[in-house]
Task: inverse folding
């Protein structure tokens, strides 16, 4: 098997459909900004006939500022809920300063980061859905010396528009997802496409993965 088949999950065995293989190859060839480290990870086996997954972490020196997972799903027969044959599913997490996590507009801002990252690169997509969760941790007893921590979590999915041969531009979607990770991590924008993005200051501490 080639590298795509080594890292993709196919329900029931057999070779990979050409459209899915091309989409996976494009993901593997994408080159995000240097602060975002991306590598393959085992894909879920029950969400679709074919799946491929990546995990990423945003680093600043030795600190991890945010992390996430992106899963590409493919059903050659199509999926009514997706309105297409491909679906992208993501989880993004980062730690925030408590006062930032308390901002009542934070969920709306985080959702706009996702849609804005896709729109900034001119990507077509449909059927977006997701949740924004913020959580606060307070430590007691033997952990009482730890400061309170707040975390934001974005869970979302969307259908990438398919291009020639029924293959979406998965490389561009991956780069947009890395833009989202960088925004959540509080990194400055890198180009004109995201120069107007508003970022929130983060807690610059190691992430527990």
Result:
């Amino acid at each position: 098997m080639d590298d795509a088949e080594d890292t993709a999950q196919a329900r029931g065995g057999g070779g990979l459909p050409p459209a899915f293989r091309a989409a996976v190859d494009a993901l593997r060839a994408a080159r995000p900004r240097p602060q975002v480290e991306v590598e393959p990870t085992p894909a879920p086996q029950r969400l679709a006939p074919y799946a491929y997954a990546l995990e990423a972490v945003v680093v600043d020196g030795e600190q991890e500022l945010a992390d996430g997972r992106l899963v590409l799903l493919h059903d050659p027969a199509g999926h009514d809920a997706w309105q297409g044959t491909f679906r992208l599913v993501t989880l993004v997490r980062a730690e925030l300063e408590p006062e930032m996590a308390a901002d009542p507009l934070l969920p709306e801002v985080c959702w706009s980061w996702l849609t804005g990252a896709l729109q900034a690169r001119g990507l077509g997509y449909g059927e977006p859905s997701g949740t924004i969760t913020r959580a606060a941790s307070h430590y007691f007893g033997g952990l009482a010396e730890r400061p309170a921590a707040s975390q934001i979590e974005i869970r979302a999915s969307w259908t990438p528009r398919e291009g020639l041969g029924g293959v979406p531009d998965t490389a561009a979607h991956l780069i947009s997802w890395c833009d989202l990770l960088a925004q959540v991590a509080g990194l400055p924008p890198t180009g004109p496409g995201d120069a107007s993005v508003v970022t929130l200051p983060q807690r610059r501490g190691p992430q527990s993965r």
